[in-house]
């Protein structure tokens, strides 16, 4: 059995040469996010509205997958300049007008992405797949890094958490109960800070599964998904590996749930007027589909509980 630190194994499993996110099927081959299908159309409309409200002309999608959200944004507002960032080369199906940058993956950002002016930078479910140290309190109350076998997922406690990682844990996720877990969010904070530093003027939004101080999950949140099913976390490249984000530790001006954020952008999920069904049956069906998608995006216990960390620059 060969043990690696979870953070190292996680990075390789998602972004290595045969990593999960480099597979031809892409993430959409395993799960649906709010950027896909009818949900993506509604979310893209909100993204375009947010850009307009802030006088921004450029939308940058961090962790753009195969360009699903950007395709919807282009339809919502063709005047916007669009840029995608992901670990794969430019998808062949993407509109030629959309710019594309390849990133090494994880917290790394492409060199070309800098000096952004007038940009809305939208990082949708990016930080939850930025690998971070996984730690557990041992029987003596000491926080130790968790190691994992890349082939089986079997775990063992490794070295004591120290340095800046320990400082982060003591500041943001303090626990001494044996068996309790901490996902040390420092790499996510640093990744976000680096992204913020690339913007001269604009708005950045991180959207993710998350938690805040006072409501940290005692057992941690590390999870894996394959073909639409939750599976045991094994860092072998065959499944997605994700952990919720300590959203309150990110540099932000606002922190709100997705339900509140989207409603502020005009997404309410209300049922269209029945009169429309009589006057314009096709229009009514389209409005009903959008309404259903909006309801799903704002639903308690689901997408509506996502957190939005908003940072304004310049």
Brief summary of the model shown:
The protein is α/β, with parallel strands linked by helices and 314 residues long.
What does this structure look like?
The mean pLDDT is 92. Helix 2 (37-53) crosses helix 3 and helix 2 crosses helix 8 (281-297). It is globular, with a radius of gyration of 20 Å. The termini are far apart. The strands form 4 sheets. Strands 4-3-2-5-10-17-16 form a 7-stranded mixed sheet. Strands 1, 6, 7, 8 and 9 form a 5-stranded antiparallel sheet that branches. With 314 residues, the protein is an alpha/beta fold. It has a single domain, classed as Rossmann fold, CATH 3.40.50.12710. The protein has helices at residues 6-15, 37-53, 68-76, 163-172, 186-197, 258-264, 274-279, 281-297, and strands at 3-5, 58-62, 81-86, 99-102, 116-124, 134-137, 143-149, 155-160, 181-183, 199-208, 210-211, 223-226, 229-231, 240-242, 245-246, 254-257, 307-313.
């Amino acid at each position: 059995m060969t043990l690696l630190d979870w953070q190292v194994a996680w990075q390789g499993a998602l972004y290595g040469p045969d990593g999960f996110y480099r597979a031809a099927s892409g993430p959409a081959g395993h799960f649906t996010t709010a950027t896909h299908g009818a949900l993506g159309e509604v979310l893209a409309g909100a993204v375009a509205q947010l850009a307009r409200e802030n006088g921004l002309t450029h939308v940058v999608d961090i962790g753009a997958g195969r360009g699903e959200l950007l395709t919807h944004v282009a339809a919502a507002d063709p005047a916007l300049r669009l840029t995608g960032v992901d670990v794969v080369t430019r998808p062949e199906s993407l509109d030629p007008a959309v710019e594309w940058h390849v990133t090494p993956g994880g917290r790394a950002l492409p060199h070309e992405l800098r000096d952004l002016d007038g940009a809305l930078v939208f990082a949708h479910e990016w930080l939850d797949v930025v690998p971070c140290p996984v730690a557990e309190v041992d029987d003596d109350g000491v926080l130790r890094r968790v190691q994992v076998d890349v082939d089986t997922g079997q775990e063992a406690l490794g070295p004591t958490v120290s340095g800046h990682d320990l400082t982060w844990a003591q500041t943001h996720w303090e626990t001494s109960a044996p068996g309790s877990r901490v996902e040390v969010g420092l790499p996510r904070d640093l990744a976000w800070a680096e992204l913020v530093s690339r913007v001269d003027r604009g708005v950045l939004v991180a959207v993710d599964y998350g938690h805040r101080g006072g409501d940290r999950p005692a057992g941690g949140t590390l999870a894996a998904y394959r073909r639409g099913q939750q599976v045991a976390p094994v860092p072998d490249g065959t499944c997605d590996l994700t952990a919720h984000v300590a959203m309150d530790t990110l540099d932000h001006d606002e922190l709100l749930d997705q339900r509140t954020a989207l409603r502020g952008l005009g997404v309410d999920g209300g049922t269209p007027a029945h009169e429309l069904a009589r006057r314009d049956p096709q229009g009514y069906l389209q409005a009903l589909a959008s309404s259903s998608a909006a309801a799903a995006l704002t639903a308690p216990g689901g997408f509506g509980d996502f957190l939005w960390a908003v940072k304004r620059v310049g």
